[in-house]
Amino acid sequence: MTISSSLLARYEAVRSASMALAEPLSDEDCCVQSMPDASPIKWHLAHTTWFFETFVLERFEANFKPFQPAFRMLFNSYYNGVGAKHPRPQRGLLTRPDMAEIEDYRSDVDARIEALLLIAAAPTYIPSSELEHLIVLGLNHEQQHQELMLTDILHLLSCNPLHPAYDPAPYVPAPAAPPLQWQTHPAGIVEIGHLGGGFSFDNELPRHRHYVEAFELASRLVSNAEYLAFVEAGAYDDPGLWLAEGWDWLRANEITHPLYWRQSAEGWSEFTLHGLVPLDGERAARHLSYFEADAYARWAGARLPTEAEWESAAAAAISPSPAQPPAQGPELSQLFDTGWQWTSSSYAPYPGFQPAGGAVGEYNGKFMVNQYVLRGASSATPPGHSRPSYRNFFPSHARWQFTGIRLARSV
Q: What are the tens digits of pLDDT across the range 285-300?
């Protein structure tokens, strides 16, 4: 069995989507790094290309020759097994290579990957499951960076006092948020982790059993209007609502509201990809840290769900199974199209987790410390990229991502 020719079409689509995201930006926009956690757009475009050159072409291309030997160090992110890396906080200092050379780099690697895939699609080709796996991993890796491109450019433009818009299209207000209701799930043993039959990251495996007590899950995410009530109730000045580390984080950084909210004599506004717009109360509250999500849940008389609760509920909503105890109550909305949802679960390996061998094995496993799991997807996530078993993760103070709150309660 040869590698499917449809993989070539998917490769071309994903790679083109990254360039389309950069299209509205100037070369100056693409070079700047607004904080150490973010990366310049130019670096994202180069690093995702580096992944294919380093892990695919070096391994499978006959007579491999790098496009530019210095790029091996320059655009390595965190793969210690590959070699040296340029310091992450200094990516914004890389005025050279310029955007034109990065585009040439992408075009060169694309042509070589496409040639490799055409060879692999021929009936006479001796198949390699490793080649197909690395191509698919690289495409999913690039889709992760596509979301990061949007979150990073949003943060960058938010630092500009001119409030420039990434997307010049008029902002469309969200429809009225339906009343928040509760879906009830009985206690029992649930299975979580990837089912198989498609791509998954290694941190979604192995599938295993987990006991959950009876719980309730909110039908939608917390809205801006609901979160504004939390802000105006003085919650950011109430130490009783916050974890100790969260309270120290608030005080040290003088945080009094969500990251992109602005207050003026005219009221509250929010910086978005459409620029600065009046705060839309019906829109889901996003760009919140774990600390903020946890404090809001406590203030609301609820809590954050565990990842086992979230996944079992989401899986049942998408594809009900006789093995899954039926839930009672309203349908769940905003699972994958609005904001990533914080859980109370620390990011840790599943029982029996085994990272892949070699440098590719550094993809997820080595980050399983001091982070919390988020579930779902956001409006910035490429369509079809996520699934119920997908495990996103960030440290508790991170809030430049499209992160929101889905409440849970114990029954």
A: 999 999 999 999 999 9
Evaluate whether residue 164 is within a structural domain. Answer: no
Closest CA relative to residue 375, chosen from 409, 404, 353, 398: 404
Q: Which residue has the tokens 């420039």?
A: 164
Same domain, 365 and 281: yes
pLDDT beyond 90 at 3: no
144 bridge partner residues: none
SS3 state at 217 = strand
In a domain, residue 15? The reply is yes
226, 141, 216: which is closest to 185 by C-alpha? 216
Q: Is 276 helix (H, G, I), strand (E, B) or coil?
A: strand
Q: How far out from the chain centre does Cα 219 lie?
A: 22
Q: Is there a contact between 194 and 364 (Cβ–Cβ < 8 Å)? A: no
Report the amino acid identity of residue 392. N
Residues 6+ apart with CB under 8 A from 334: 220, 221, 284, 376, 404, 406
Helix (H) or strand (E) holding 73: helix 71-74
β-bridge partners, 378: 338
Distance CA 61, CA 125 (A): 14
- Average pLDDT, stretch 126-140? 89
Q: What is the helix, strand, coil percentage profile of the chain, to 5?
A: 40, 15, 45
For residue 55, the domain's CATH number is 1.20.120
Residue type for position 106: R
The neighbour count for residue 73, using CB atoms within 10 Å, is 13
Print the domain residue range for 136.
Answer: 6-158
- List pLDDT tens digits, range 224-246: 999 999 999 999 999 999 999 99
Q: Look at strands 275-278 and 267-272 and give their pairing.
A: antiparallel
pLDDT tens by residue, 330-372: 999 999 999 999 999 999 999 999 988 888 989 999 999 999 9
Do 199 and 145 have their domain in common? no
d(CA 201, CA 35): 27
Q: Exposed/middle/buried for 267, CB within 10 Å: 0-12, 13-18, 19+? A: exposed
Residue 388 is predicted with a pLDDT of: 97
Query: How far, rounded to the nearest angstrom, does the alpha carbon of residue 338 sit from its chain's CA centroid?
Result: 12
